[in-house]
Design a protein that fits this description.
two-stranded antiparallel ribbon, Myb/SANT-like domain-containing protein, transmembrane helix, transmembrane, membrane, mainly alpha, about 140 residues, about 60% helix
């Protein structure tokens, strides 16, 4: 597989760079996952054996010689982002009014009200969690003072 070089680095105001993956790189990483699953790296509980990131890094290096992709931080963060996206999509699909369009590969919503209500509920839950975190910090502060 020839590397197209479409990946790039983005900087932010803190001087931290973020890597943008090309479509070819993402496809190669998925191919690497398929290979390690076929060779017994996936455990019965859904996790992977220790060292799977190194195997994926080697796969990417073989697929794209001279790449700067590393197991940490690149592959590990890509997996975290995929999990986050998967969880968001799963959450939507578990809600009435959301359906998966298998032809175009995206989530469809019956109407705008469903989306508005979904966002309001998510924001409300997020506020409750943040309030609980703040209360725990206050408790620790007063407890240790």
């Amino acid at each position: 597989m020839e590397h197209s070089g479409n990946s790039s680095l983005l900087g932010n105001s803190f001087g931290v760079t973020r890597r943008l993956w090309s479509k070819e790189e993402e496809e190669a990483l998925l191919e690497g996952f398929h290979e390690i699953c076929a060779h017994g790296w996936k455990l019965d509980n859904g996790n992977f054996r220790v060292g799977y990131i190194s195997i994926l890094e080697n796969h990417m290096t073989e697929t794209f010689p001279g790449t700067n992709l590393r197991g940490y931080p690149h592959i590990e963060f890509k997996i975290k982002n995929w999990k986050k996206s998967y969880n968001s999509i799963s959450s939507c699909l578990a809600t009435s009014g959301f359906t998966w369009n298998d032809i175009h590969k995206y989530v469809e919503i019956e109407n705008d009200d469903i989306w508005t209500n979904y966002v309001q509920v998510c924001n409300f839950i997020c506020m409750i969690i943040m309030s609980m975190v703040q209360l725990s910090y206050l408790f620790m502060f007063f407890y240790f003072v």
